[in-house]
Description:
Blueprint: H1 6-18, H2 23-29, H3 37-49, E1 53-58, E2 61-66, H4 70-86, H5 90-99, H6 105-120
Antiparallel strand pairs: 1-2
Amino acid sequence: MEKLTQQEEEAMLVIWETGGGFIKDFLEELPEPKPPYTTLASTVKNLEKKGFVQGEKLGNTYRYTPVIKQEDYKKRFMKSFVGDYFKNSYKELVAFFAQDKKISAEELQEIINMIENKKAE
């Protein structure tokens, strides 16, 4: 699975959120400033070439549906991100945010509780 550009990722977030649809549907959901219709259409075509969406021709337009699940993309992205920037150590990732004061002691305790609850399952 290929890493998406920022523009592709923004489009995919809308496609995942809507569950699929037409370019005009996606354009309505994007925040301002909205890209031109043709730019978004090109972006979605690139997503189709990369295997993230599938287009179905309906009349003279296409309806696009996601092929890759958002959760699968998140997992792959995070694995790559942690590998590239934190030497494959999630501990170093959390330590980075703790040192930079982007995560509180309470949030760290919540993470510990989540991990302990997962182990108990």
